[in-house]
């Protein structure tokens, strides 16, 4: 693990990140001032953002949120960002569609209401725009001039685009063998893109070394030294889902797992809404979804283990291909505490599920969406997911970025004549 304290530029002495007041250690609770640090100096546990939230009547806060911009910034009072964040140059991600999936529900036998939270609608077509937008504000507050990351693909594009809009330099790191759609998107925004010969876990380790080195001076790595802020962006998925359900908790939610950050922060977001009185407190279950070719968390869940044994990924779901997921143990806690589960699907099942969602709801998901839909189908078959309850399934990326997964083409190719078409059997 890299040094807990990173080589930081001369940061302003007092940073202003809205309701965020400190960082606190997830393991031992120790508090440190807001800064570009990610690991506890005492126990090396992960640091997360701690808040003092507005002491406001829930009705009034709901109205204030509803009157806000149609982006994640409507929840600025609950995020580590300055109050005027929406006026600063950024991509305004979020407030994506919550689609009632009636056709898919019939196909899967879900009677309690099935919804797809479709995050392919974000500016760079994945959920990563949410987390990056928060990290950019932290980077600005701490005086970083270069935005960076280790990425399984989607994050690289999101960082490149956000940096371009914010007027920051970017240099991002990816495994060299990613899907063409993701490589092109990572490169097009004009920052530097470095392919690393190795897996995502190798890329991540390399970035941790770079942070401790003068080479990385002045660099904000959104998912490493800015991780405590970055991670908070995933809470907005929980906020939006509840607001879009009419300020109600879903009964069940199916979330993809790469590092596990998104799943843990969705849980944090739901608990915050309950604590603030914005939704009524009742039980909810969180389910995690992985690809069989990279299923260390699912394995540990099924084996009843608390620790996650790292694996070497081999799956078409490259956006989820993290063999050593940092938040894996917390995911296990949450799945067990809420009465959920963690399940995995094979590559052919992922492809089938992408086609199923496209055929039933007109949504073309990337492989991560194939993983969540495939796992949902499996959990229903196994009786672990209750079809009579309200269920939200996340689609976190766009199928146009993973075209190879579904290699499709014309049913038939003909000359432009009625005669030729008449001879075709469709
Ligand atoms: C990054 C990513 C996720 C989740 O990542 P976590 O590391 O678990 O937060 C999910 N879906 C897609 C498409 C992603 O790119
Ligand atoms: Zn600690």
Automatic annotation (TrEMBL):
Entry EC number(s): 4.2.3.1
InterPro entries, sorted: Ser/Thr_Dehydratase (IPR050147), Thr_synthase-like (IPR004450), TrpB-like_PALP (IPR001926), TrpB-like_PALP_sf (IPR036052)
GO function terms (MF aspect): threonine synthase activity
TM ranges: none
Keyword tags: Lyase, Pyridoxal phosphate
A Pfam family hit: PALP
Domain Tryptophan synthase beta chain-like PALP, chain residue ranges per copy: 93-397
Names of required cofactors: pyridoxal 5'-phosphate
Family in the record: Belongs to the threonine synthase family.
Name of the molecule in the record: Threonine synthase
Source organism (scientific name): Streptomyces orinoci (Streptoverticillium orinoci)
């Amino acid at each position: 693990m890299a040094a807990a304290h990173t080589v930081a530029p001369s940061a302003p002495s007092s940073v202003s990140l809205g309701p965020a007041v400190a960082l606190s250690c997830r393991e031992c609770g120790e508090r440190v001032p807001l800064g570009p640090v990610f690991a506890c100096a005492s126990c090396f546990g992960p640091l997360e953002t701690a808040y003092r939230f507005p002491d406001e009547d829930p009705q009034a806060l709901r109205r204030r949120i509803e009157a806000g911009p149609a982006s994640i910034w409507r929840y600025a009072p609950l995020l580590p960002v300055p109050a005027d964040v929406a006026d600063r140059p950024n991509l305004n991600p979020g407030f994506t569609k919550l689609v009632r999936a009636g056709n898919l529900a019939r196909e899967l036998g879900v009677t309690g209401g099935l919804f797809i939270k479709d995050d392919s609608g974000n500016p760079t077509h994945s959920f990563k725009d949410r987390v990056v937008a928060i990290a950019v504000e932290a980077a600005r507050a701490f005086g970083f001039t270069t935005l960076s990351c280790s990425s399984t693909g989607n994050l690289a594009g999101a960082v490149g685009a956000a940096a371009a809009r914010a007027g920051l330099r970017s240099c991002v790191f990816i495994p060299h063998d990613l899907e063409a759609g993701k490589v092109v998107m990572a490169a097009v925004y004009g920052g530097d893109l470095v392919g690393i010969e190795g897996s995502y876990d190798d890329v991540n380790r390399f970035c941790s070394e770079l942070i401790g080195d003068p080479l990385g001076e002045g660099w904000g790595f959104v998912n490493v030294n800015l991780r405590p802020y970055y991670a908070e962006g995933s809470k907005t998925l929980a906020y939006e889902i509840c607001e879009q359900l009419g300020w109600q908790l879903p009964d069940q939610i199916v979330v993809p797992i790469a590092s596990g950050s998104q799943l843990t922060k969705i849980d944090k977001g739901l608990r915050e809404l309950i604590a603030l009185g914005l939704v009524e407190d009742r039980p909810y279950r969180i389910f995690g979804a992985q690809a069989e070719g990279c299923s260390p968390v699912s394995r540990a869940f099924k084996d009843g283990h608390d620790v996650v044994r790292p694996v070497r990924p081999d799956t078409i779901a490259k956006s989820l291909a993290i063999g050593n997921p940092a938040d894996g143990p917390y995911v296990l806690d949450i799945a067990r505490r809420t009465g959920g589960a963690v399940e995995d699907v094979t590559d052919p099942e992922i492809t089938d599920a992408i086609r199923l969602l496209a055929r039933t709801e007109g949504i073309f998901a990337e492989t991560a969406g194939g993983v969540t839909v495939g796992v949902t189908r499996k959990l229903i078959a196994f009786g672990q997911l209750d079809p009579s309850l309200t269920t939200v399934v996340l689609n976190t990326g766009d199928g146009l970025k993973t075209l190879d997964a579904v290699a499709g083409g014309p049913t038939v190719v003909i000359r432009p004549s009625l005669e030729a078409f008449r001879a075709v059997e469709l």
